[in-house]
Amino acid sequence: MVLESLTSPENAENKYYFMLLLGFLFSAIAAVLSYSLQGPSPSLLFVFFTAIPAIPIMYAIIKYEEGKDIVYESEKKLLKEHVKALRAFIFLFIGMVLGMTLIFAVVPSEVKFVLFETQLDNFLSIQNSSPHTGMVTGGAWASFSHIFFNNVRVLVLSVIFSFLFGAGAIFILTWNASVIAAAIGSFIRNNLSVAAEFLGLSRLIFSLETVTTGLLMYSIHGIPEILAYFTAALAGGIISVAVIKHDFNSENFEKILLDSVDLLVFSLVLLFVAALLEVFVTPLIF
């Protein structure tokens, strides 16, 4: 497969910045394909076509990480090795978000609504039922509880999809990337419309500030949250590969299972931190 040969697991982990370029490239190609086909739901095709080329790369990395469970004895060393894979996944995700955000921000409105119709509906429904409104009626901790347990539900789905389909969680994560891009893109487009009265350098500075603010607004809590999903997906994928390769009663399988449990615990800690940031830090800054 051509896309699978674009990079190896070793290169993906060591040259992680290339994963950012791939994520950007996948989203750009997917936008052209999904808009050109004009199928029944181009916005969902956009997510599908972005995720598909990422599957062989993500699965190859998961298999590579599962092999490390056999090589390394120290759990601490294993977790340090897994960080390389998670870094590659995060840069792939960031590349997707940047590509989708750029598409949202620069394409004509009619194209934007075709490619992001479902994502915009989802974003508006999230805004209308925002848990931050619960900070008035139920308090900040009610908002925290709502966000945290909703994110745990997504995390569980990531584990299940990765366990059943190897790299299946990439569809959930690509969907999240498209919704985040719609949110950031909406913020950028709405605020850049205000800049219409400015000229020259002032307008350029205002535009750069708007883009930076839009990205930071969702990055503060978004990066640990997405990292948690990828960590859970890695745990589920490692178990999936191990089920295929190893005997359930073998010592290696027990070691792999322990490693996956550690990853799941780490992902829950990340979700907890992300929810705290979303409720108590992001609103203070923005």
Radius of gyration, in Å, reads 20 Å
Strand and helix order:
HHHHHHHHHHHH
Distance between the termini: 45 Å
Average pLDDT, all residues: 85
- Number of structural domains: 1
Weakly predicted, low-confidence segments: 131-137
Can you count the helices? 12
Shape: globular
Largest sheet: none
Mind explaining what this structure looks like?
This protein has 286 residues and is mainly alpha-helical. The chain has one domain (3-119, 129-285). The chain has helices at residues 9-14, 17-37, 42-51, 54-71, 75-106, 109-115, 117-128, 134-137, 140-165, 169-192, 200-245, 251-285. It is globular, with a radius of gyration of 20 Å. The model is unreliable at 131-137 (pLDDT under 50).
Task: Give me some keywords for this one.
single chain, mainly alpha, 12 helices
Short account of what is shown:
This protein has helices spanning 9-14, 17-37, 42-51, 54-71, 75-106, 109-115, 117-128, 134-137, 140-165, 169-192, 200-245, 251-285. The protein has 286 residues and is mainly α. The chain has one domain.
Topology:
Elements: H1 9-14, H2 17-37, H3 42-51, H4 54-71, H5 75-106, H6 109-115, H7 117-128, H8 134-137, H9 140-165, H10 169-192, H11 200-245, H12 251-285
Helix pairs in contact: 2-3, 2-5, 3-10, 4-5, 4-11, 5-10, 5-11, 7-10, 9-10, 9-11, 9-12, 10-11, 11-12
